[in-house]
Design brief:
It contains 12 helices and 6 strands. The longest helix has 30 residues.
Length: about 350
């Protein structure tokens, strides 16, 4: 990952390479993919650590299978379907999905909903607990402890990709995300920046600029992506971005710190210090805390979808409000439940040799 070049104190142009290394012309290892891998590896290690110490209702030998199924049916399926239901259909209409059904599984084009992933995991853990004969809320209590680490890795990957960036800030410190030039309403700044970038590196950009002049809709993104890539070794292009790109909050890092690291620490301490909590309490704390942190972070994040209430409530904040109700339900059920419930174990016998 190449470093960000500092222009002046407090103002950085984001031009990190999202690719770790290329394997072929059409296949490369990306930081976003590595983030998902790290999330599942850390999730497996964390849940196994909890299970081995009697802090989770799932036995250690079943953690591997649990993580694999949770990844497929909870995170990927739930996250993608959530994006389609919560964002794609409201913006493009149900007819768009019916006419283009391949968009449902086209994850390589982007689009995963954290709220959808959480909902997917709720459904998955319910089915899993019924099949394994253990407490549904007990299963959830372990999963929500490690889930924030996955969220953290995802937000860090968003930052490296230069996507889901923050709102414009007048503060002296911030980030300049060149991808913001492609937003609707920035057409004038985009064309001015690209013209100057072509002058700074005509040998590598003139052909793309010519294609853009013929078909702007198809080549606007590729031209900007190539220009960002060239800025990593061309200071003149970096100067162009510094001139035309507004300074924004690095909201991805705020979310990684709040929804990820801070939430993980809170839940882990709660589990270690209060081992006799009834099933569901930690899950309830997760929902309430995640919703709170998300609502706070959305104050600094550029809305990536239409506002629910213009200038007041983003879609991320709107969906987070429902999490308060879900969290309250888990808290009430858990506090009414019996203590000492960590001694519960699945009633089914373990299959030998599984890990």
């Amino acid at each position: 990952m190449r470093s960000i070049t500092v222009h002046v104190l407090g103002a950085w142009v984001h031009n990190l390479d999202p690719v770790i290394f290329e394997i072929t012309d059409n296949f490369a290892l990306r930081w976003y993919g590595l983030a998902y891998l790290m999330a599942f590896v850390v999730g497996y290690l964390g849940l196994r650590w909890l299970a081995q110490r009697g802090l989770w209702v799932v036995a250690p030998a079943r953690v591997g299978d649990f993580i694999a199924y949770a990844a497929i049916f909870g995170v990927f399926l739930g996250g993608r379907l959530g994006y389609v239901l919560f964002y794609m259909i409201p913006e493009n209409g149900f007819g768009y999905v019916l006419e283009n059904p391949d968009v449902i599984y086209a994850v390589w084009k982007g689009g995963m909903s954290s709220h959808g992933g959480i909902l997917g995991l709720i459904i998955f853990t319910f089915v899993y607990s019924r099949r394994m004969g253990c407490s549904w809320t007990g299963v959830g209590d372990g999963l929500v402890i490690v889930s924030p680490l996955g969220i953290m890795f995802g937000r860090l990957a968003n930052f490296i990709n230069g996507e889901l960036y923050g709102r414009v800030t007048s503060a002296g410190v911030g980030m300049k995300f060149p991808k913001a030039l492609a937003e609707q309403g920035n057409e004038e700044a985009y064309e001015s920046a690209m013209k100057e970038a072509v002058q700074a590196d005509p040998n590598r950009l003139e052909a793309l600029w010519g294609s853009y002049a013929v078909n702007p809709g198809a080549t606007k993104g590729p031209l900007l992506e190539q220009t960002i890539a060239l800025s990593r070794d061309n200071p003149a292009i970096l100067e162009v971005f510094h001139k035309y790109v507004e300074t924004r909050h690095p909201s991805q890092l705020y979310q990684a710190a709040l929804e990820g690291l801070a939430l993980f620490v809170v839940l882990l301490i709660l589990r270690l210090k209060m081992r006799q909590l009834g099933h569901g309490v930690i899950t309830g704390v997760f929902f309430v805390s995640y919703a709170t942190f998300r609502i706070i972070a959305e104050q600094f994040r550029e809305p990536d979808s239409a506002w629910v209430v213009e200038g007041l409530l983003t879609k991320g904040q709107f969906y987070s409000l429902f999490m308060y109700a879900i969290g309250a339900a888990f808290l009430v059920a858990g506090l009414k439940g019996k203590t000492g419930s960590l001694r519960d174990r699945p009633v089914r016998k373990e299959a030998p040799g599984r890990g």
